[in-house]
């Protein structure tokens, strides 16, 4: 009788580092995860803003000047897009993790929250009303 | 299979989830006003003036300052560093517990700084 | 009408790694990938090895990668593909020969979550269940253990110790069953770093599941259950 255990030679292809480039589903996943990169930059900006506020008016003015630099505005524009993509994916995942209400209702409710906060901030900083 | 040790991940996952809500609900409006419209000159000059921002953050016993630090800095930081931590694992760049300590350590440190400075200006 | 089927062949007695072989297969509207494999084995090349049984998407044996997406051969049709399609063994499992994977890791993980009703009651009466109680777990009860979700899961590919989608779905299925008392025995497996916490909600498992039972949702509802379990353990040591 042949030795069946000895004849076995299973082949396992280890997952390559670039597995997420293999098809669009994984690419979209990595894009979702990467939305935190511009977010990290903005958190740093806000932290610097709070610090400058404590340092006095001239420090705060130079922080505002930093925020108005074209490359900073460009990164923040990217963050706005990233935050919408994050919101879309996050809002769609939430009803699957906690199915409290019908999913479309939960998704709509969360978008309403985002819109309400944006309107509140626009009103607070004089863009409307 | 042996009984595995309980993971501490629920703590980081709870912070990640709370931060994810902040990222989706707070950040779009904030980056739109502070990061885009104001620097582009599309909001009144006084909207983010030194005195107005100080006054805004210090009103109601400094609660707005704390809310800003919590929902726009601390929780989003934990959200972001959680994804960075798992992203490094996905890219096979994670180096065991070190990556985890660095990721959540940075988020914790910057959160303390944010809360401290939100309090200093109060 | 014919299509070209490219199969990743691997013979453990001769090959160092799998290599592609091409076959011309006639097809019509009803030809499944499994039909095509049977045609190749019976008409063109009797050495081709693959698993199959029921031909109706319930035995879960004929899982293969079709154009790099995990599919059941019997539930996938040549008509939906262009003139060429590539078939290989399921990703993330060791290949024994051709399209036959070694599913032992998956079966070990499934066994670890005790996938059966655990009930100490000596009561010989039937365990009655209301439609509402049935509804709680029913959506997770149709798993056929085909392993497609493991082939779809990069976290399992990166870390083969991850319990994985189907095992966690099945743990949830029994944990949510009103007749079951085994949750305390299953939670320690889910609570570990290779339990629910190895998942990052990639979500591809839900796309490929031939029974549409959303394993990603089950795993992430398992995270809520595990976090709750942790809170309870803090207040009630």
From TrEMBL, chain C:
InterPro entries: 2Fe-2S_ferredoxin-like_sf, 2Fe-2S_ferredoxin-type, 2Fe2S_fd_BS, 4Fe4S_Fe-S-bd, 4Fe4S_Fe_S_CS, Beta-grasp_dom_sf, Helical_ferredxn, SDH/FRD_Iron-Sulfur. The keyword Metal-binding applies. Pfam families: Fer2_3, Fer4_10. Its EC number is 1.3.5.1. Keywords: 2Fe-2S, 3Fe-4S, 4Fe-4S, Iron, Iron-sulfur, Metal-binding, Oxidoreductase, Tricarboxylic acid cycle, Ubiquinone. It is an enzyme of class 1 (oxidoreductase). Residues 3-93 form the 2Fe-2S ferredoxin-type domain. Residues 134-163 form the 4Fe-4S ferredoxin-type domain. It catalyses: a quinone + succinate = fumarate + a quinol. Binds 1 [3Fe-4S] cluster. GO terms for biological process: respiratory electron transport chain; tricarboxylic acid cycle. Pathway: Carbohydrate metabolism; tricarboxylic acid cycle; fumarate from succinate (bacterial route): step 1/1. Its cofactor is [3Fe-4S] cluster; [2Fe-2S] cluster; [4Fe-4S] cluster. GO terms for molecular function: 2 iron, 2 sulfur cluster binding; 3 iron, 4 sulfur cluster binding; 4 iron, 4 sulfur cluster binding; electron transfer activity; metal ion binding; succinate dehydrogenase (quinone) activity. PANTHER family: SUCCINATE DEHYDROGENASE [UBIQUINONE] IRON-SULFUR SUBUNIT, MITOCHONDRIAL, SUCCINATE DEHYDROGENASE IRON-SULFUR PROTEIN. NCBIfam families: dhsB, PRK05950.1, PRK12385.1. Belongs to the succinate dehydrogenase/fumarate reductase iron-sulfur protein family. This is Succinate dehydrogenase iron-sulfur subunit. The lineage of its organism: Bacteria, Pseudomonadati, Pseudomonadota, Gammaproteobacteria, Alteromonadales.
């Amino acid at each position: 009788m042949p030795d069946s255990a000895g004849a076995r030679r299973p082949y396992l292809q280890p997952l390559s580092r670039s597995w997420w480039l293999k098809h669009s589903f994984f690419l979209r996943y990595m894009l979702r995860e990467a939305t935190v990169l511009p977010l990290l930059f903005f958190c740093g900006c806000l932290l610097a803003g709070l610090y400058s506020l404590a340092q006095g008016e001239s420090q705060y003015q130079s922080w505002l000047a930093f925020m108005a630099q074209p490359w900073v505005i460009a990164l923040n524009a990217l963050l706005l897009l990233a935050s919408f993509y994050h919101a879309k994916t996050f809002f769609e995942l939430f009803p699957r993790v906690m199915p409290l209400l019908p999913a479309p209702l939960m998704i709509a409710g969360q978008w309403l929250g985002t819109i309400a906060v944006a309107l509140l901030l626009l009103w607070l900083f004089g863009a409307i009303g | 299979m042996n009984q595995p040790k309980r993971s501490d991940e629920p703590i980081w996952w709870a912070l990640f989830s709370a931060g994810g809500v902040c990222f989706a609900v707070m950040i779009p409006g904030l980056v739109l006003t502070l990061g885009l419209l104001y620097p582009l000159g599309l909001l009144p000059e006084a909207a983010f003036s030194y005195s107005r921002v100080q006054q805004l953050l210090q009103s109601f016993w400094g609660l707005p300052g704390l809310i800003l630090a919590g929902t726009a800095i601390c929780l989003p930081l934990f959200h972001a560093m959680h994804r960075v931590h798992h992203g490094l694992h996905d890219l096979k760049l994670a180096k065991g517990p070190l990556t985890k300590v660095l990721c959540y350590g940075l988020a914790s440190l910057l959160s303390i700084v944010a809360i401290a400075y939100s309090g200093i200006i109060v | 009408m014919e299509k070209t089927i490219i199969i990743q062949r691997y013979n453990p007695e001769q090959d160092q790694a799998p290599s592609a072989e091409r076959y011309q297969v006639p097809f019509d509207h009803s030809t499944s990938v499994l039909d095509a494999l049977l045609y190749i084995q019976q008409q063109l090349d009797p050495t081709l090895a693959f698993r199959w049984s029921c031909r109706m998407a319930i035995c879960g044996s004929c899982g293969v990668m079709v154009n790099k997406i995990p599919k059941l051969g019997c539930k996938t049709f040549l008509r939906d593909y262009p003139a060429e399609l590539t078939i290989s063994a399921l990703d993330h499992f060791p290949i024994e020969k051709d399209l036959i994977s070694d599913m032992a890791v998956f079966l070990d993980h499934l066994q670890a979550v005790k996938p059966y009703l655990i009930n100490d009651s000596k009561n010989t009466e039937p365990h009655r269940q209301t439609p509402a109680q049935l509804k709680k777990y029913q959506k997770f009860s149709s798993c056929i253990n085909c392993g497609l979700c493991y082939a779809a899961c990069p976290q399992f590919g990166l870390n083969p110790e991850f319990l994985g989608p189907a095992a966690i779905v099945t743990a949830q299925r029994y944990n949510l069953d009103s007749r079951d008392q085994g949750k305390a025995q299953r939670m320690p497996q889910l609570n570990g770093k290779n339990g629910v916490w190895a998942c990052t909600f990639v979500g591809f498992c839900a796309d490929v599941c031939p029974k549409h039972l959303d394993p990603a949702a089950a795993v992430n509802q398992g995270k809520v259950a595990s976090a709750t379990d942790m809170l309870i353990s803090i207040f009630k040591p």
